[in-house]
């Protein structure tokens, strides 16, 4: 069994993903971490030196390498849903769970972090609102299930996903 987590930066994919993996005795994988490992450099460096289109290409190649594996929770980069090809690849891996949160909550969670190239702009808060709005249809279309983490602890969000997963397999 696999579970895929999608959603914007700062919605808790990593924290919830680690909890899900340990509760369900699955491995935890993260597309950004896999990309950094293959490329031997940080996401910020890839964006700065080779640009977003190159990053997106590597992201798709990374999803292809996961097709033959099983028993993992996959946390994905926030922009993975932008390519239809990626969504098809994700759906062939496992059920896709969308984590959502309000823009002000997202901003509060990530404002002190330095590794998000898309938010290195003069007004990151406005940028979050703008990108969230443009991505919303992509997230909704890709998701089999959605959890709003705005008012939930990572533990509570993980519990909700496990309950959904169990109700689905019964
Ligand atoms: C991105 C989100 C990042 C990372 C890259 C692009 C995006 O991942 O993939 O900086 O387009 O939203 P997280 O969502 O894990 O921060």
Explained architecture:
- The chain is α/β, with parallel strands linked by helices and 170 residues long.
- The protein has one domain: Rossmann fold (3-Layer(aba) Sandwich).
- The protein has 7 helices and 5 strands.
- A 5-stranded parallel β-sheet has the order 2-3-1-4-5, with helices on both faces.
- Helix 2 crosses helix 3 (43-65) and helix 3 (43-65) packs across helix 4 (84-93).
- The longest helix is centred in the N-terminal third of the chain and has 23 residues, at 43-65.
- The model has no long low-confidence stretch (mean pLDDT 96).
- The structure holds shikimate-3-phosphate (S3P).
- Shikimate-3-phosphate binds at residues 9, 13, 32, 43, 77-79, 116-118.
* Side-by-side strand order of the widest sheet: 2-3-1-4-5
- Kindly report the CATH topology: Rossmann fold
Q: Main beta sheet: strand number and arrangement?
A: 5 strands, parallel
Give the CATH level 1 class: Alpha Beta
Q: Mind telling me the C-alpha Rg?
A: 15 Å
- The span between the termini is 14 Å
**Mind telling me the CATH superfamily name?**
P-loop containing nucleotide triphosphate hydrolases
Beta fraction: 5-15%
Fraction of helical residues:
55-70%
What count of helical segments does DSSP give? 7
Uncertain residue segments: none
> Could you say how many structural domains there are in total?
1
| Bound compounds | shikimate-3-phosphate
CATH architecture: 3-Layer(aba) Sandwich
Structural class computed from helices and strand pairing: alpha/beta
Counting DSSP E segments of at least 2 residues, the number of strands comes to 5
Mean pLDDT: 96
């Amino acid at each position: 069994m696999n579970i895929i987590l999608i959603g914007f930066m700062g919605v808790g994919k990593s924290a919830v993903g680690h909890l899900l993996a340990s509760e369900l005795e699955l491995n935890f994988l993260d597309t950004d971490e896999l990309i950094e490992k293959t490329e031997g450099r940080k996401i910020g460096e890839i964006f700065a030196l080779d640009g977003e289109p190159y990053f997106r290409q590597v992201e798709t190649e990374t999803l292809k390498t996961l097709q033959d594996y099983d028993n993992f929770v996959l946390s994905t980069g926030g922009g993975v849903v932008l390519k239809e090809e990626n969504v098809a690849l994700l759906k062939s891996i496992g059920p896709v769970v969308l984590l959502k949160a309000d823009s002000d909550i997202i901003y509060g969670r990530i404002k002190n972090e330095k590794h998000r190239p898309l938010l290195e702009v003069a007004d990151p808060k406005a940028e979050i609102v703008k990108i969230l709005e443009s991505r919303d249809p992509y997230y909704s279309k890709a998701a089999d299930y959605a959890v709003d983490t705005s008012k939930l602890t990572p533990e509570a969000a993980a519990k909700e996903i496990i309950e959904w997963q169990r109700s689905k397999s019964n």
